């Protein structure tokens, strides 16, 4: 049987609409949905824990800019340093959503390239700065953020799916996607695998928060979030195409190598950090 007959042809227009020449894409919309969903989930936790509302107000800005800056720098420095560090103009492209044209001038492109590992590091640093300002316990804040993070991660992978990027390797599975903007090969929908896995984690987080929040030690949600997401990320990379050619000669690709430290840190916070202080929560 022709494998293509069993595949899902995928070729959506990544542009949702065009506003005065500026392309509004599903990618940006889904990123925004993920961030705002997290905003309301964490806001609920602040109210549930009776934390001063004034301390919550600046959190969104720390998270938004921490994720965006970290994800952008992570992509540029981890995956394409040879492009962004070779000239002043390309260096500027790391920070602003434009691309300088060979002919002179520039073109608005949005941020073409965001890395989840960099976004995670950016968020961790931003939350440290936030806690210094608000005098809140760092692990209490990252635990609350961790409950909401999987839903945001789900939205980001759906954004990748709408962009037909971060594609999987060829497969004869009946649920394979043919990414017509790339080629006509049936491929693993790796973005969808990750989106489903992160949505499942979100429901696990909500269940644990509702039933066992006071019984779990501080740092547990943060550890579970890191260990689950990056363990899944490590293994899903085996059915995904490498993002850059230099990864082809590596034992593990860049995404896998970058995942290992996060997995180790996650396991530590799940099973070893602050266990004796559960009663203080």
TrEMBL record:
Catalytic EC class: transferase
GO biological process entries: lipoprotein biosynthetic process
Compartments where found? Cell membrane
Which terms in the GO cellular component ontology are assigned? plasma membrane
One of the record's GO molecular function terms: phosphatidylglycerol-prolipoprotein diacylglyceryl transferase activity
Residues recorded as binding a 1,2-diacyl-sn-glycero-3-phospho-(1'-sn-glycerol), renumbered to this chain, are 157
- What is its membrane topology? Multi-pass membrane protein
EC nos: 2.5.1.145
Q: Which parts pass through the membrane?
A: 24-44, 56-75, 114-131, 138-159, 192-209, 216-236, 256-273
Domain of life of the organism encoding this protein: Bacteria
Write out the pathway annotation from the protein's UniProt entry: Protein modification; lipoprotein biosynthesis (diacylglyceryl transfer)
Q: Which UniProt keywords apply?
A: Cell membrane, Lipoprotein, Membrane, Transferase, Transmembrane, Transmembrane helix
InterPro entries for this protein: Lgt
Q: Which Pfam families match?
A: LGT
Tell me which family the UniProt entry assigns to this protein: Belongs to the Lgt family.
State what this protein does.
Catalyzes the transfer of the diacylglyceryl group from phosphatidylglycerol to the sulfhydryl group of the N-terminal cysteine of a prolipoprotein, the first step in the formation of mature lipoproteins.
Report what the protein is called. Phosphatidylglycerol--prolipoprotein diacylglyceryl transferase
Q: In which organism is this protein found?
A: Bacteroides faecichinchillae
């Amino acid at each position: 049987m022709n494998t293509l007959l069993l595949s899902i042809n995928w070729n959506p227009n990544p542009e949702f609409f065009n506003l005065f020449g500026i392309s509004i894409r599903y990618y940006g919309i889904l990123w925004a949905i993920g961030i705002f969903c997290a905003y309301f989930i964490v806001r609920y936790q602040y109210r549930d824990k009776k934390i001063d509302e004034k301390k919550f107000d600046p959190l969104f800005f720390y998270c938004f800019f921490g994720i965006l800056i970290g994800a952008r720098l992570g992509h540029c420095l981890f995956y394409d340093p040879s492009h962004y560090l070779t000239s002043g103009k390309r260096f500027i492209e790391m920070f602003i959503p434009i691309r300088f044209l060979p002919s002179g001038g520039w073109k608005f492109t949005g941020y073409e390239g965001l890395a989840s590992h960099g976004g995670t590091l950016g968020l961790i640093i931003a939350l440290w700065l936030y806690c210094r300002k608000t005098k809140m316990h760092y692990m209490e804040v990252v635990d609350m953020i961790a409950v909401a993070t999987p839903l945001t991660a789900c939205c980001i992978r759906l954004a990748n799916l709408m962009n037909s990027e971060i594609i999987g390797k060829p497969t004869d599975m009946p649920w394979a996607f043919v990414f017509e903007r790339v080629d006509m090969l049936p491929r693993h929908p790796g973005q969808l695998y990750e989106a489903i896995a992160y949505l499942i984690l979100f429901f696990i987080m909500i269940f644990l928060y509702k039933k066992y929040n006071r019984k779990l030690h501080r740092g547990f949600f943060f550890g579970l979030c890191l260990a689950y997401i990056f363990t899944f990320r490590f293994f899903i990379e085996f059915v995904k195409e490498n993002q850059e050619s230099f990864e082809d000669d590596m034992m593990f690709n860049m995404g896998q190598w970058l995942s290992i430290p996060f997995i180790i840190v996650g396991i530590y916070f799940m099973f070893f950090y602050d266990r004796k202080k559960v009663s203080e929560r």
